[in-house]
Request: fold
Amino acid sequence: MKFRVWREGDYDDVESATVFDRNFLNDDIEYVAEVYAEHYHDNCDGWECSWPLEFMVATEDGKVLGCVEVVREARPHFYGRTKP
Reply:
């Protein structure tokens, strides 16, 4: 199954959203939104956004299935170095 997934507020209508180029085995919209959120974060400047974000999920033919809020976990890294 393929879905149209977009960030809430990015498009006026579902037909404007492109089909997410990935096949899914079922219609678990939370999983679909999580996978798209990772794509959005890594490839669409999503790392600059203030999370959580809401993503709309629709069938490939445009039937809206729902809105999913996706939270990004923060994993800070700390580095130390000796001062001269």
